[in-house]
Design goal:
single chain, about 280 residues, alpha/beta, 11 helices, 8 strands
Length: about 280
């Protein structure tokens, strides 16, 4: 009987562990993006996973593949998010535009729960239109979902006009400027972020990769401290409230940058920690 019991126990199929993170790449066509811009972004993202995360050793995350969205009615991305959120596997989306978040909000902005969005980047993305357009993501989110709140990390005052500052203040947004996000202010940043996270039930983290990667010529701008960005990312994830992370960039120099790879590696490290 004992040997029979042993054979029975050993023959049972083992339950597969649910991965802590699910990575995917998504390219969405949003006005006024030109067909050429969309196609270039699609080509940049299509094979990004091969370099960024598919070569990880002992991976403890899932790869949900690559999606191309040309029609606003296409629900594949929303369905993918719904599936992995139901499994408690955190979606990490590498995409071409911030407006990808609008696909997730119907799933995340729940009644009687406060949704906090931590945006890491230089600009507010508050273009005042309810039409799905580039630069309008947070105006849309705050207008449609009453219990949604914004925390901006790294706003560049030189790139924001006075009207947008006033509008962000009217909306009750929280922000730290690029100068306030330096390593020497790390304790203040941590305390402010802790206070913000404490008042949220769920979190989304969105990273504008252009704010991390140096540029040249007419597009030259300040860049955020990558180590500070990693600290913010880690602090948010360790709260246990993050439901989605999106890393946004539409060009090779952003998608295949050292800064993007470092963030992906950090997430892979955190995914392994969650299993031990």
């Amino acid at each position: 009987m004992l040997s029979l019991f042993k054979r029975s126990r050993l023959s049972r199929p083992s339950t597969a562990a649910i991965p802590a993170f699910t990575f995917c790449t998504v390219c969405e066509q949003v006005k006024p993006m030109s067909p050429v811009e969309f196609e270039f972004a699609q080509q940049s993202l299509e094979f990004a996973s091969d370099w960024l995360y598919q070569r990880q050793v002992n991976a403890t995350y899932a790869d949900a593949g690559h999606l191309v969205l040309r029609d606003p009615a296409d629900s594949r991305f929303r369905d993918l998010l719904s599936h992995h959120l139901a499994m408690n596997s955190l979606p990490v989306v590498l995409g071409n535009c911030h407006e990808l978040l609008l696909n997730a909000l119907p799933l995340l902005a729940l009644d009687n729960e406060e949704l906090g969005i931590i945006h890491i980047g230089h600009q507010f993305e508050l273009k005042q239109t309810l039409d799905r357009q580039l630069g309008s993501v947070y105006h849309f989110a705050l207008s449609r979902y009453q219990q949604t709140h914004l925390f901006y990390f790294g706003i560049d005052p030189e790139r924001v006009d006075s009207q947008t500052w006033e509008y962000a203040e009217d909306l009750g947004c929280n922000w730290l400027t690029e100068a306030e996000c330096s390593f020497r202010h790390r304790t203040q940043v941590k305390n402010q972020l802790d206070h913000y996270i404490e008042h949220c039930d769920q979190l989304v983290v969105s990273v504008d990769l252009a704010s991390l990667v140096p540029s040249h010529g007419l597009d030259e701008h300040k860049i955020l401290d990558s180590q500070m960005v990693l600290r913010v990312l880690r602090q948010a994830i360790m709260s246990g409230k993050v439901k989605m992370i999106q890393l946004i960039g539409a060009k090779d120099k952003l998608i295949y940058s050292k800064q993007t790879k470092t963030m992906i590696d950090e997430l892979a490290h955190l995914s392994r920690e969650s299993f031990y």
